[in-house]
Structure prediction request, 181 residues.
Amino acid sequence: MNKIDENLIVLARSGDQVALLKLLEICQPDLNRFSRKVCSNAEDAEDAVQVALWILYKKIEVLRTISALSSWLFRIIERECYRIFRSNKKNFHMAPNEVEQLYEANYISSSEQSVLKIDLSRAIISLPGTYRTVLILRDINELTAPEVADILGLSIEAVKSRLHRARNIVRKKLELSGHFS
Prediction:
């Protein structure tokens, strides 16, 4: 985190609202950058930053040492991103063996495969439900487009369109994570 004037933190801890607002303003860009690396999507990252700034605003007086500010805020963001990820995961229905099939890629080292698994899971989970369902039915359950269309009550063209969009979104998220060039 950028160097923050210790006097500003002391003033904010003592209840100076102007100092506190200035501190929030100074912290936000670094928190935004960090949250985008930790959270699964931009919306979750924004939510995590807002939670961290709100906690800082409400509980600045409990900060024990000035040097602990950045690590305290980063831990709040990590916990919030994980909480959001867990709550999103509850809405994601996939059997464990289907998840494993999704990650079979023997040409990738185990450490790279672990990172890819996490990023791929995040990308799929972050898809809007309509795209996620089509992607899982077609690419994981290996159903045909007509079968998916029958199950979901859609036209075959709609299934193909949603699948195309879902794959593009996942590919872009994986590219942003550094997996493909």
Remarks:
- The CA atoms of residues 153 and 159 lie 10 Å apart.
- The first helix runs from residue 6 to 13.
- The radius of gyration is 21 Å.
- Residues 96-176 form a domain with the Arc Repressor Mutant, subunit A fold (CATH 1.10.10.10).
